[in-house]
Queue: 4 jobs
Job 1
Amino acid sequence: MVHAPSAASWTPVRPPRNAPPVRINLYSDTQTRPTPAMKEAMMRAEVGDEQHGDDPTVWELCDRMAALMGKEAAMFLPSGTMCNVVAILTHCQKGDEVIAHETSHILHSEGGTHAALTGVQIMGLKGARGMFTADDLRAAIRPRTRYAPPQRLLEIEQTANIGGGAVWPLATLNELTGIAREQGWATHMDGARLLNATVAAGIAPAEMVAGFDSVWLDFTKGLGAPLGAVLCGSREFIDAAWRWKQRLGGSMRQGGICAAACIHALDHHVDRLAEDHANARDLARGLGQIEGVVVEEPDTNLVFFDIKGTGVSVETLQKRLMEKGIMVSGLGGRVRACTHLDVTPAMIPEAVSAIREALAA
Ligand SMILES: *Cc1c(COP(=O)(O)O)cnc(C)c1O
């Protein structure tokens, strides 16, 4: 049973036993369930002791990811958040400054980890759709005086989540990483949904991330694995990152069970991301025809829409949809509907009608 977490407590709330079943889950691509074929692959996985270095399936996943990203080495971690934390700890020292977009996950969705644990400060740049330009980045360069925090890392989210799943163009990425290199900064890509970007843009992952020192991919978003993310970089970077993985308790044991799910996702769930993007476009088209709804044309699988013009609040819409077994999320005053592995094309018109009714009620 899926449910929206309560804001009143830090502990996730269990859904009531009589909660209506969720039939159309547009809440997040994190809610995909492993398919029967993925579970089969997990069951068949050859395993060992990952932190001891002898789990063959984890090695296979890391080799495949390093090759896919065009980097020397890779590391399996339990979550994307841990990839960001480990990467920032590896690139930076306490008091260093990380430059990122003001809507980025590291600023808003990691529980204050960078104040609590990594000790970096984050400068949030403005810009439409979660992106900024080379001029914006140049304007953020600080003088090297003893007063200014030392700037150390450029962090880019591909796709930009709160930016509406927007895809940073390759030319912009290359310009930005070029500036970072000039400044002597490291570069890190939060690639939670990187393959949504590469599939949408028709660009190979290695080409898209060529300018970045480190990059990670989440297997628990549209790729549909139950857990796991892989961080990639130079051999030297990954070697240094292992110290932080171990310190944070991110070293696993028979991790191959989960790595097998990720390998299965690489083999079977990448090309199909295009279907999620087509579903998202259809959804956006349908929503755009509802009076009072303002929707942005999606680049990938995230559809953000504004319902202020309808007079219905995001919470009321969520509650009304929940009664029909449909789940959407609220993010920054807007509604987010996310397409993924468990959302079929047939569900799109049904979701549009339900949203139309819920907004008219
Ligand atoms: C989901 C997400 C993360 C964190 O990944 P988890 O696996 O949930 O820890 C980081 N960045 C972005 C952009 C995300 O969407």
Job 2
Amino acid sequence: MGGMKLRVSPPVFQGRLHDARTATSIGRWLGPAFAVCFVTGLVSHFMQHPPGWADAVPSRPVWGYRLTQGLHVASGIAAIPLLLAKLWTVYPRLFEWPPLRSARHALERLSVAVLVAGSLFELATGLLNTAQWYPWPFSFVPVHYAVGWLVVGALVLHIAVKAPEIRAHWTRRSPGTLALPTQDGSDRRSLLAAVGAAAGAVTLTTVGQSFTPLKDFLLFAPRHPDKGPQSLPVNRTAAAAGVGRIAGEQYRLVVAGPRPYTLTLDDLRALPQHEVELPIACVEGWSRSARWTGVRVVDLLERADAPPDARVRVVSLQLRGGYRVSELGRAHARDPLTLLALRLNGEELDPDHGYPARLIAPDRPGVLQTKWVGRLEVLG
Ligand SMILES: Nc1nc2c(c(=O)[nH]1)N[C@H]1C(S)=C(S)[C@@H](COP(=O)(O)O)O[C@H]1N2
Ligand SMILES: [Mo]
């Protein structure tokens, strides 16, 4: 018995499913998913917070935001199984010995730690946001945006560090040059097929939230595009927004501009009515097209003598909450499709859809399609 030593050694992983080639194969899908997610996230950010130099956010194509936001949510959801598979493939590296070989190695590992933590954070908060569930103390939008940059920075660094291995993967020619047993090849193929199937399945069962032809496949999606009053989903009801049921007879629209005026609901109904087919494309991951009828905002602006390049502030009768005010840039304010809508799919607006009047404009995030509009302010 004497002399027996207890030796703790890190686990040994020999399976090829944990090797660089498998990690690279999954990365080949994960990288593009992250790229699409990041770029479409930037589009969404800049449409909601246009920088000073981009005075006119374009208002066409009408389905632009619906497409980019749909891609944002779809690529983020597809990235979840891909990231989990990737982490499973590389987790033996956690037991690497010695853990830190040099300053360079330490920095590399630190960047991977940032990448993993940031990616998990982005995908988790994004997914919960589609369910409108915010179990954290910070505000979602600015933090999700900032961490997005962090992840992209760490990802670029990671790809640069791993460039030799990625290159080796891509320059590998025919299977004949592989010094790997065939058994191993089919294992890897099975894993990749399973991962691909998982990513495909989660996409197929959620993408119908914004890509309506696939709405019959919705399984995990928090919202169905047909469910809601007048067959349109509702994010914040009139009760939740604290506006309750607005009495039509008491309603007034104030247009504040060089020549200000006030209209009753009957005045609005007596103005030329226009019909447009436009989607609500919600940042929380659903979108739905509908037929809207109402007064062109540009007509209301002209009556107020607004300058042709004026921006417009749209103010809700809702008193509190993040989305009670939005701004129309020059292109959106002048677009003939931008309406102060009174009707939806042929009926008077439901209170939850913004009765008596709501904004509807082309190529615009849902959060900016202000409901219960009481005031339009012409800005310089
Ligand atoms: N005043 C006001 N307008 C609002 C909101 C709100 O909370 N308050 N929610 C916005 C959001 S997030 C979306 S996606 C759309 C949803 O419109 P719907 O509920 O009529 O379908 O309205 C937008 N307009
Ligand atoms: Mo939304």
Job 3
Amino acid sequence: MKLQTRAVHAGDRKATGQHVPVTTPIHTAASYFYPQSEMLDKIFGHEEHGYAYARYDNPTNAALEQLLASLEGADGALATASGMVALQATLMTCLAERRKRVLCAEALYGATVKLLMNVLEPYGVETHFVDLCDLDAVAAAIAEFQPGCVLMETVSNPLLRVGNLSRIAELAKAANAPVIVDNTFATPLLARPLEHGASYVVHSLTKYLSGHGDVLGGAILCSGDKLEEVRAMSRVVGPVLGPFESYLSMRGIKTFPLRMERQCRNAQQVAAWLRTHPRVTRVFYLDDPQHPDRANVDALFRDGLYGAMVSFEVEGLDKAGVFTLMDRLQLVVRATSLGDVHTMVLHPWTASHRDVSPRHKQRTGIRQNLLRLSVGIEDAEDILADLAQALG
Ligand SMILES: *Cc1c(COP(=O)(O)O)cnc(C)c1O
């Protein structure tokens, strides 16, 4: 079945008995009752599948996890309280019996860099940053640094660079380092990293998958044996998603392919329009025939869908100029997130990349006059009209 169909059906109607709810209810119970103690004993002993305690799992989360696994082509999933805790749990599982070294992309989500530097480094985890679009540099870094795992994003933020995932996964595999891919920006509709050699996929459900800006959540997806290790840790630590958020995520995902297809089409129109605007000097969007990673984009992205993030530079604008432009927007929302139904704008220099050193910003190409749009599902003409009046 196609992803669009699975998004609507997977995970639902797993209950048994006379009355089966068509959509999965919110199960809030902290613990579960069985008429015979023998049954709970078997569940505790993992001899039989069943629910015992909400930190281990619950039927609402199980339905969402089945849905997510179906979309990504994974054996299973763990739904977590945020995208960040999904990344932390994955890194800790990967590094448990490996060298405490993470080789990661130079351009990573800001909080991910902080997770590595501020949270994991004090526990002895070393991080080495590399330009993932430079395969020779990746090969050299793997040989010299001997990482315990590799961490990357399908597409980087906000300049939309795309590495050669299959080749990186081969290089990492030869060094016994699993590859973790944060697929939040691409989503499983556009790219499925597990099919290209990734060992783990991590998501922030907060973004496109939930899609309405009203849920904080994350997920880890991988093969069955790896998931068992993740779950063993999760059962003890409890980074799990709450059942209300689980329900909202599942509800959001049913329309995710519809929304995403439209967001991608809108983004393509916005990028095309920006390219013709006299004040706009550069446009970053994945449909660009001159994109520096064209071959990698074509290998990874499906069905001519290139995502809904568009970044652009406006000639000669300093910080104050950017703020004036942003404040003129009436439809486009100034907000620190992405992937929602509404179009959003962000100034990477002062927001997502605020804590990144000026040198690192310069090296990775984040300039003061750069703006990032997360294009929503509105009518494209209305988005363009708002951008036009703000740009003047
Ligand atoms: C938002 C985001 C995260 C963090 O997810 P939260 O749900 O906010 O914890 C991680 N990676 C990427 C690429 C993101 O956009």
Job 4
Amino acid sequence: MANRKHNFSAGPCTLPLEVLEEAQAEFVDYQGAGMSLIEMSHRGKHFDQVATEAMALSMEVFEVPEDFSVLFLQGGAILQFSMIPMNLLHEGHKGGYVNSGTWARGAIQDAREYGEIYTAWDGASCDYTRMPSTRELAIQDNTRYLHITTNETIGGIRFPKWPDVEIPLVADMSSEYMARPLPWEKFDLVYGGAQKNLGPAGMAVVFVRKSILEKTNRKIGRYLRYDIHESKASMFNTPPVFPIYMFGKVLKWMKKHGGLAGMERRAADKAGTLYGAIDSSNGYYRCPVEVACRSHMNVVFRLPTEELEQAFLEEAAEAGFMNLKGHRSVGGCRASIYNALPGASVKALAEFMADFQHRNR
Ligand SMILES: *Cc1c(COP(=O)(O)O)cnc(C)c1O
């Protein structure tokens, strides 16, 4: 297809082309209904089928055990920063948080408004270039959950191994959602915004262990209560209709491409290509992240000078490699290579990097 660029955006970001085309084909007249899916009631038969299928497929593709429910909520991942402590923390409970970078700090900041929160590990001392090992975690008594950010989108780090702790884990998986398997027995709640691996912006996908819903806090507004969303199958109010519809299509695409194992393999291959390009550049490109914790989704790298970084970004954009600028808080470059980004885009970028180095020694 003409005019599709190599899009390394950190989110919203590349979606599978076949998903976009399918949605385009049925957008104006959904399955002969004479109206678009986004023009009809969310309680009608068409949308009911779409939502039911997306729920079932999300459990299947992400290999989620039956004692979890999936919720489709609005407010993105950031609303979950508040909903989690509001629902889960009672009097006498503490929330333990791993401070692994920008997004974890956001989760900590919001949680402090609702309960007793402490930092179980702070990555500031290593400038957020790695994740902690289990023995580095300082877990206090009466901790209800340990919150982790499995992949820090800005710092470009991920947990190589899951923390092995006695208390339940709660995880923000926004930027590596459905890109690697999870040991579900360790988790009470897993959440993330849809707009990185799963679909368009406008929805958070939350997996919550059913047995904890009996004990969640009821003294909060109804939209903020997990138990209500669960009992209404995410139809308590008008759900994010379009994101749910697109998510269903992305899930079918994931299934067709090998499911979770397929996504994990694709990610490892693409990340391997880019880190290979960095590591074989004799120090021209540098990745500040500890090797074991390198993200398979957000590859951050620097060039020898900021002038060269500027030239690199400009020439890359001219050559069709878009959105490679690092987050404004850290600078440098970042290639986000989420599930739907084709391997060919990553190979082409690796070649461009070698060529740029050759021309700009
Ligand atoms: C993008 C991102 C968020 C913010 O998500 P919103 O849906 O915009 O609220 C939170 N956490 C992580 C790890 C992210 O990558």
